[in-house]
Structure formats: C-alpha cells, structure tokens
Design a protein that fits this description.
Blueprint (H helix, E strand, L loop, with lengths): L2 H20 L7 E2 L1 H8 L3 H14 L2 E2 L6 E3 L4 H25 L2 H19 L4 H17 L4 H21 L5 H18 L2 H26 L3 H4 L2 H5 L4
Antiparallel strand pairs: 1-3, 2-3
Helix pairs in contact: 1-3, 2-3, 4-6, 4-7, 4-8, 4-9, 5-6, 5-8, 6-7, 7-9, 8-9
Length: 235
Amino acid sequence: MTDRETTQADTIRLAIESEIFSGSLVPGTSMEEGRLATRFGVSRTPVREAITQLVQAGLISKSAHRRAVVSELDPGTLLDLFEALSELEGSAAFLSTMRMSPDEKQHLMTIHESAADNLRRQGDPNDYAKLGSAFHHAIVRGCHNKILIETTDWMSLRVLPYRRFQVMTPGRLKKNQSDHDTIISAIVAGDAEIARDNIQRHTLEQGDALMRFIALNKTKSVERLPRAVNEEYSL
C-alpha cells in the first residue's frame, strides 16, 4: 500500500470503530467493500486494509467466502482482554523500572509531556490516544524481554481500538494522564512494585471505562437504524 492508502485506511478504520462503539453499526451489519469505497471516495484497497485491521481487533468477523459483518461486543471477553493485558504490562513495567536506559526514560517523559500539552490545548482526543499508546509501548519496550514484548504487543493490538475509545468517557482523559503521572514517577524513582501495581490498576480501569462508555452511548438498533440498514450497511 502507498502512504496515501495507509492514511485512508486509518481514516476509514477510525470512522467504523466510532460507529460500532456508538451503536450506529449494530452486530451482524454487513460491511460491503464496494459501498464503503463509495462512501469514503476511495479504492477498495484501503477499505480492505481497514477491514483486515478491524477483524484483527475482533470488531468485525469474516469467514471464508462470506462478507465481513460487525461482531457482537462480548463484555466478558473484553474485560478478559484488559485483565490479561494488565498482567503483561505490569510485568513489563516492573522490569522496565530496573532496565530502561536514561535515554529510554527521557523518551517516555517526552511522550508524557506531549500528552499533557495536548490536554492543556484541548487537542484532538485521537492524537491523545496515539500518545497514550506510545506511552504504554515505550514502557513495554523498556523491559528488554523479547518474549514479553512480543506477547504484550499482540495483546495490545487486540485492545487498541477499545483503548482508544475508552478515553471518550467523561473525565477519563484527565484521569488517564494522572495515572500516567503516577506510573512514570514510580519508574523514574526506581520503585518497580509501585510501577507494576499502578499500570495494572490503570489498564483494568480502562476496561471498566470502556464498558461504561458503551453502556452510555449505545441505543437499541431499531431507534438508530431502519431495518434495511440493519440487514446491510447502506453506505
């Protein structure tokens, strides 16, 4: 894919994610590539890439020789994902506290300060979410354990869209930044146990916040979409 197609795929993916979490796209809705391409004014290539990413995240289901459809958001599975990720990130933070180089810690601080600046300017929440992901990514990289990094990266990919949208819960951005303050302070101070405990609590709370966001924003499909659209996403 070209850089332009990659950017288009990201735009399409974010739009579909938003509509799934808000309830505009209900479970079982068909995601037809041609209609998506027409809606966004692009070729099928970035649409196909966006759908692939959404399938990887579990937001869309697609079996052989069948159209992609919006998956059912199972609260139990979502919370299990965040619980597993919290344990992995906790272990990574514990090791990172002892193993991160001064340059790696400075890089982590730079990300954190950029996120704080975004909040002060009331910047784009999507930009803040990217910085939040980079913050967690830097901590995981700092553990210098190849197996733990690969496993955590795989799990992080699964929860990426959920993590992005949980920050839309009222007050969550400031709480998220406050949590990061506590985590980075523990890492800089060399307190591995505090760093581990706080990132575990932080990640578990993200899962809880996501559940609240979905509950507050989802409405019954019959109130949001006509029957014809429920049967196939008319874009």
